[in-house]
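Severity: low
Component: inverse-folding endpoint
Summary: output formatting inconsistent between runs
Steps to reproduce: submit the following structure tokens with default settings.
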């Protein structure tokens, strides 16, 4: 806190796009500010600051607030970080950075901005974004499973194998066909996931890539999280998703994981029926997703 400092007069502050020289100051703010939201690691945030996909509020030489966007995919970007110094009122800071961030987005032909935060740790931010024109679009819901039962193994004509580095281009193309733009994962996410090699498999039908799935391991392997399961829309309904989900549960059993988790959109009822059939149950956790049309 800043008990002996007068409130900052924002009329004297500069709101501007970020630049390379801001990386250290933005990094410090994201680590130290009590009002901060960060949904990405430094490997994503720092390039965004360097490339001007962020805005800062600067007073003299001090950065007092910062907001960062993801790389756009099909005219869609996500708010990946926002931090406000204790010297500023969060309401005033967000009211200043939100229009500047939208200006940057429009310059990059972005038409939709999205935000997904934790209702507990980030509850300070949601009402401020709603005042800035964001609206609640959906929730991400959480499912979990505490056994290794597999009700069916899916299509046995499907060949499932570990992913290889050379599969990246096809996986990226498949992901774009499978999901709405705001849910597509780009190379910055999928390339490291492929390189990680813990659980990333592809499904092939008649020699063609038909789906893929990958998971991450946590707490020494005691928890495995299904990050993605994707099936080409042209071959859905042929047991490929069941096969991929069965492979994931089998992997968790072999690893000795005691808890299996996954997330999906509240409106994706088809996927939720599959997960419930496999023994996954909703935890009650919900992550609100907000959208801003530009």
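Observed output (run 2 of 3):
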């Amino acid at each position: 806190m800043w008990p002996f400092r007068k409130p900052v007069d924002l009329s004297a502050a500069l709101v501007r796009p970020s630049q390379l020289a801001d990386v250290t100051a933005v990094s410090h703010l994201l680590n130290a500010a009590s009002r901060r939201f960060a949904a990405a690691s430094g490997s994503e945030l720092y390039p965004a600051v360097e490339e001007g996909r962020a805005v800062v509020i600067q007073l003299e030489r001090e950065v007092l607030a910062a907001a960062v966007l993801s790389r756009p995919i099909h005219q869609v970007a996500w708010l990946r970080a926002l931090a406000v110094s204790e010297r500023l009122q969060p309401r005033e800071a967000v009211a200043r950075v939100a229009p500047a961030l939208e200006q940057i987005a429009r310059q990059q032909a972005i038409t939709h901005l999205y935000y997904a935060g934790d209702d507990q740790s980030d509850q300070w931010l949601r009402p401020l974004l709603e005042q800035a024109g964001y609206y609640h679009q959906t929730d991400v819901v959480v499912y979990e499973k505490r056994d290794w039962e597999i009700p069916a193994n899916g299509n046995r004509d499907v060949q499932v194998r570990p992913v290889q580095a050379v599969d990246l281009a096809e996986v990226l193309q498949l992901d774009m066909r499978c999901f709405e733009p705001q849910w597509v994962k780009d190379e910055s996410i999928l390339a490291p996931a492929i390189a990680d090699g813990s659980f990333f498999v592809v499904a092939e039908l008649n020699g063609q890539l038909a789906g893929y799935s990958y998971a991450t391991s946590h707490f020494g392997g005691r928890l495995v999280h299904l990050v993605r399961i994707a099936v080409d829309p042209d071959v859905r309904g042929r047991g490929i998703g069941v096969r991929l989900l069965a492979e994931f549960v089998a992997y968790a059993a072999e690893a000795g994981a005691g808890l299996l988790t996954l997330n999906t959109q509240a409106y994706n009822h088809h996927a939720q029926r599959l997960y419930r059939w496999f023994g996954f149950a909703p935890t009650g956790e919900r992550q609100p997703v907000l959208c801003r049309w530009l």
